[in-house]
């Protein structure tokens, strides 16, 4: 079965705990991780300035990978939101608005990854709100037919990102009705990912179909990662289902 390393990482606009905005540090952390598919949250891309100001493009170019972006709102004259990076081709980009009125705008970026020899991987990159009732609404939106349970999805689904949920709330229960959850306590002595320098909360999660075989899980805690953002990356290694001839030649 093909293998794949997948990571989720809230990069906090590439602003580290030293309050310095340095996309180059994020690139170094991602090189340490060496993942095939990466879901980033809180990416700020401002064009027509220095190259590093367009964070999505800068990070993708430095790593030499493909990328797609899902804007949730405009910030400081740029596009702010979620980004998916991939060594494999990306297609069918859909950016779902899951915002709640009077709260900060939030999104779910859906893109399909064409992994050679494997079924199409449907990646949903999520950043949920910080309020309890807000997340309850967003959890219901995620499992609607428009997003996670669409009949058009032919392949394997994975949903990951910053869920801002440190207890087993409604979002967790709803997603577990459709996908498996990475039980970090079964793999890690330290499961917390936020804040990075002294993590006390587990906000970053990975949900996946049971056809995926989880082989390993890690919170990346290098010296660079401890200062590059206020989150730590969550990294998972999977074995993927092999594609049938019908899926390889639709």
Describe this structure in words.
- By secondary structure, the protein is an alpha+beta fold.
- It has a single domain (3-240), classed as Deoxyribonuclease I, Chain A, CATH 3.60.10.
- The chain contains 7 helices and 12 strands.
- The protein has helices spanning 23-33, 55-63, 132-142, 170-176, 184-187, 223-228, 245-248; strands spanning 3-10, 37-45, 66-75, 78-86, 90-97, 107-113, 121-127, 156-162, 180-181, 204-208, 213-219, 234-239.
- Strand 6 and strand 7 (121-127) form a beta hairpin.
- Helix 3 (132-142) packs parallel to helix 4.
- It is globular and about 45 Å long.
- The model has no long low-confidence stretch (mean pLDDT 89).
List its traits:
34% strand, 21% helix, Deoxyribonuclease I, Chain A, alpha+beta, 6-stranded mixed beta sheet, 250 residues, 7 helices
Provide a concise account of the structure shown.
This protein is α+β, with helices and mostly antiparallel strands.
Report the strand count. 12
At the first level of CATH, what is the class? Alpha Beta
CATH architect. name: 4-Layer Sandwich
Compute the number of helices. Answer: 7
- Quaternary structure: single chain
How do the helices and strands line up, and which of them pair or pack?
Elements lengths: L2 E8 L12 H11 L3 E9 L9 H9 L2 E10 L2 E9 L3 E8 L9 E7 L7 E7 L4 H11 L13 E7 L7 H7 L3 E2 L2 H4 L16 E5 L4 E7 L3 H6 L5 E6 L5 H4 L2
Parallel strand pairs: 1-2, 7-8
Antiparallel strand pairs: 1-12, 2-4, 3-4, 5-6, 6-7, 8-10, 9-10, 11-12
């Amino acid at each position: 079965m093909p293998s794949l390393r997948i990571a989720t990482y809230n990069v906090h606009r590439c602003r580290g705990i030293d309050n310095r905005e340095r996309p180059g540090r994020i690139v170094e952390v991602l090189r340490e991780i060496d993942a095939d598919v990466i879901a980033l949250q809180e990416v700020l891309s401002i064009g027509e300035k220095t190259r590093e100001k367009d964070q999505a493009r800068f990070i993708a170019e430095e790593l030499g990978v493909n990328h797609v972006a899902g804007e949730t709102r405009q910030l400081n004259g740029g596009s702010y939101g979620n980004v998916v990076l991939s060594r494999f081709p990306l297609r069918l980009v859909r950016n779902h608005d899951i915002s709640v009125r009077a709260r900060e705008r939030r999104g779910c970026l859906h893109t399909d990854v064409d992994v050679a020899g494997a079924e199409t991987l449907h990646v949903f990159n999520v950043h949920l709100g910080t309020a309890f009732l807000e997340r309850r609404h967003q959890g219901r939106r995620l499992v609607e037919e428009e997003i996670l349970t669409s009949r058009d999805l032919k392949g394997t689904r994975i949903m990951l990102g910053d869920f801002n949920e440190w207890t087993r709330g409604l979002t967790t229960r709803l997603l577990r009705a459709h996908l498996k959850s990475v039980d970090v306590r079964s793999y890690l002595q330290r499961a917390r990912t936020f804040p990075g320098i002294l993590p006390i909360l587990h906000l970053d999660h990975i949900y996946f179909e049971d056809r995926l075989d989880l082989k390993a899980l890690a919170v990346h805690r290098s010296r660079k990662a401890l200062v590059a953002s206020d989150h730590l990356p969550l990294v998972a290694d999977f074995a993927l289902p092999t594609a049938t001839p019908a899926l390889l030649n639709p």
